[in-house]
């Protein structure tokens, strides 16, 4: 019999990479205002400081696929835990903006690598009938990380006045990352390697033991044979991704990854305190509204956890994106007509977060981790996940500039237009993948 507790324990450890992803990316939301005062930053420089880690993410994704294919998923994850720890220490220390940006870049390397490796590892080890749920644990860990750092930031900011936070508070916020990073590194020593990577390396016996623990003895033999046949048919080169069939898989991965970011989520996650201050909330109240966003994000990611293997990826994505589109239209309307003091703006933002968290938040990670063949999964996920960070980079760099130049209404209407595009793309191109093994999904493209 499959050991459900073993599977859950292993996937929870891997999902801690998501917690650090959320923690490290969102920590800047609480620190950015104090960094702006500390280093006298212009709007353009605020965008650069907020996005400095994202440049590291792009580089981290690029090397993570190669390292995971060469040395294994587990060793690559251990490297990300080390980089998270170094970044947490280094961002708390500098007195110059250049050193701070360099330390954030190192953190970005870890975030980018974890963003590819954690869902990849979970998808390769999870049983087919609960794979969507287990990969969604990764997204849940991201939002818990975001929620946790919102709370930590709020508590740290309350420890002193503006002057204390400008000199010291932001350092504690950024340095607090070292605690979950060290925990992640320790726990990784107690999880196995991906069975699909082991079979690719010819370590059949080790892989079969893990497959038995995950799927039970009877299914393990069948899955091992599917993996072996899949690996025999593929050369594992980058050019394989542009072969007929897989070319469509690559386009789905790239488009989903990009649009999961350019529909506005990180404009709200990263800059929520500043947006709420801009529309009239006090600094303390803005932090509370941001914390509320984190709670909603967490609750509706749990809703996705419940629905994704029942209703399926495609249906959940279509309903969620439709809701996002409506909410973004309302947010833009509130900004355009200056309806900022009533409840509608906050309700629309929270409803948008709920729709995103139950659809376009977790589902791209699930689909990207499912649709590529084992032989090329590492490099393919690097390409697709790289587009996540291109999208994040665009949003973090240009959101402050667009807020100042075109205003909130047109900014959120741009996001609404992007939501319409991804809805239509999903309707036409994305297949259902629930309850299929990774090798059965690969056969669909043929």
UniProtKB/TrEMBL annotation:
InterPro entries: MFS_dom, MFS_sugar_transport-like, MFS_Sugar_Transporter, MFS_trans_sf, Sugar/inositol_transpt, Sugar_transporter_CS, XylE-like. It is found in: Cell membrane. GO terms for molecular function: transmembrane transporter activity. Pfam families: Sugar_tr. Gene3D superfamilies: MFS general substrate transporter like domains. The chain crosses the membrane at residues 45-64, 76-93, 99-122, 134-152, 172-191, 249-271, 291-309, 316-338, 344-367, 379-403, 409-427. It is a multi-pass membrane protein. Belongs to the major facilitator superfamily. Sugar transporter (TC 2.A.1.1) family. NCBIfam families: SP (TIGR00879). This is Sugar porter family MFS transporter. It comes from Xanthocytophaga flava.
